[in-house]
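About this split. The held-out portion is used to measure sequence recovery: a designer receives only the structure tokens and must propose an amino acid at every position. Recovery is the fraction of positions where the proposal matches the reference. Here is one held-out target exactly as it appears in the evaluation file.
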């Protein structure tokens, strides 16, 4: 699948998703370090499903003002560098940017150019000046060369208290997943609390440790294997260190993002 064909079949989905992601990312525009809690690229083993990620970066300052210079780095789940070269909308390779005021640049992961080994982790954007950024995950039918689903995600900053909508059904056709990264230098102890619509605990909470620089992706059913098959409520994610999180709602092969809701501090 060539990058041109990839852009042709999915460009409208990419643009609409990125518009939403960049709009939401405006609250993060004062930061010079932003995170994308999930980055995925390549063909899933023993399947016709592939993935690619598109990242957009924009300098929200007025036209003609100072240039923002930055870099996007990619990290494997174990914290080691992910050796992937991104390509811009003109086909030029590179993971860096220089954007004058009002300029925007797109970065495509390499799966748009054909089958690639499956990789998953997270991305970090650093810039000398404030920028806004968003990403899009694209699920692909590798054999047909078509897009199955797309979803936009704004860049994140670390939080210690957050919640996401939690959904599961007895047929396992609808389920919530989350991706987490610990961008810090110390282990993060994370407690997951699954609540029903009335705020009542569904099952006992679960605690895990995410080492520094590491990434983990799980469905709620994997975190809580003894939970009922049917539930609707929220998952609270409470950490002693700042982590970044993305949440996805899957329905069959399709998926979409759900908001990560910051929680107020304890009284």
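Reference sequence for scoring:
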């Amino acid at each position: 699948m060539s990058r041109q064909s990839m852009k042709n079949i999915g460009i409208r989905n990419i643009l609409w998703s990125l518009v939403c992601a960049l709009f939401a990312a405006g609250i993060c525009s004062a930061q010079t370090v932003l995170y994308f809690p999930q980055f995925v690229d390549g063909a899933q083993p023993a399947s016709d499903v592939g993935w690619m990620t598109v990242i957009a970066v924009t300098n929200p300052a007025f036209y003609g003002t100072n240039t923002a210079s930055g870099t996007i780095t990619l990290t494997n789940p174990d914290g080691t560098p992910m050796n992937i070269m991104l390509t811009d909308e003109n086909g030029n390779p590179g993971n860096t940017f220089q954007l004058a005021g009002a300029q925007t640049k797109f970065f495509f992961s390499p799966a748009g150019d054909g089958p690639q080994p499956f990789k998953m982790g997270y991305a970090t954007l650093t810039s000398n000046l404030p920028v806004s950024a968003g990403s899009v995950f694209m699920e692909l039918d590798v054999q047909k060369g078509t897009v199955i689903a797309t979803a936009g995600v704004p860049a994140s900053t670390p939080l210690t208290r957050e919640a996401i909508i939690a959904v599961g059904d007895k047929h396992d056709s609808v389920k919530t997943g989350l991706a987490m990264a610990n961008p810090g230098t110390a282990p993060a102890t994370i407690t997951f609390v699954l609540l029903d619509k009335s705020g009542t605990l569904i099952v006992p909470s679960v605690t895990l440790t995410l080492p520094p620089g590491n990434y983990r992706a799980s469905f709620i059913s994997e975190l809580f294997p003894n939970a009922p098959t049917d539930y609707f409520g929220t998952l609270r994610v409470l950490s002693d260190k700042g982590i970044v999180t993305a949440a996805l709602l899957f329905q069959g092969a399709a998926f979409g993002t759900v908001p990560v809701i910051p929680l107020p501090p304890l009284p």
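Annotator remark: The chain has two helices and 17 strands.
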